[in-house]
């Protein structure tokens, strides 16, 4: 029986956040993250392996002044 992998999934709560879930695939991780209490929505295709470091950056579409 294959073991699950920790996936970090970008979600929207009252603020944007990341949650860690145990799943077999990134798609399953996103589906499971959507079921967590307080999660309003999940950013599609946002699941990354839990052992990768998330470096906060400038949101897409934001330009320098």
Short synopsis of the structure:
With 65 residues, the protein is α+β, with helices and mostly antiparallel strands. The chain has one helix at residues 26-34; strands at residues 5-12, 16-23, 41-42, 48-49. 14% of the residues lie in helices and 31% in strands.
Structure description:
The structure is a single chain. This protein is of the alpha+beta class. It has a domain at 5-49. It is built from one helix and four strands; from the N terminus they run ββαββ. It has one helix at residues 26-34; strands spanning 5-12, 16-23, 41-42, 48-49. Strands 1, 2, 3 and 4 form a four-stranded antiparallel β-sheet that branches. A hairpin with a 3-residue loop joins β1 (5-12) and β2. The model has no long low-confidence stretch (mean pLDDT 84).
């Amino acid at each position: 029986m294959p073991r699950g992998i920790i996936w970090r999934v970008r979600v929207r709560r009252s603020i944007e956040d990341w949650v860690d879930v145990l799943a077999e695939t990134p798609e399953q991780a996103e589906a499971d993250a959507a079921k967590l209490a307080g999660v309003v929505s999940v950013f599609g295709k946002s699941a990354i392996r839990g052992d990768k470091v998330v470096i906060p950056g400038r949101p897409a579409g934001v330009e320098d002044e």
